[in-house]
Amino acid sequence: MQNRTEIRECSTLDELTECVQLQRDVFALPETELSPVRHLIVTKNAGGFTLGAFEGGHLAGFVLSVPAFLRGHRAFYSHMTGVRPEYQSHGIGARLKWAQRQRALADGVRYIKWTFEPTKARNAYFNLEKLGATISEFQENFYGIDYGTAPEVAGQKFGLASDRLFAEWNLESEKVVALAAGEDYIESRAPTANIEIMNDWLSLVAADPERAKSEQLRIREEFKTAFCFGMVCRGFYRDDERPAFLLYKD
Question: What pTM value is reported for the model?
Answer without folding.
Answer: 0.92
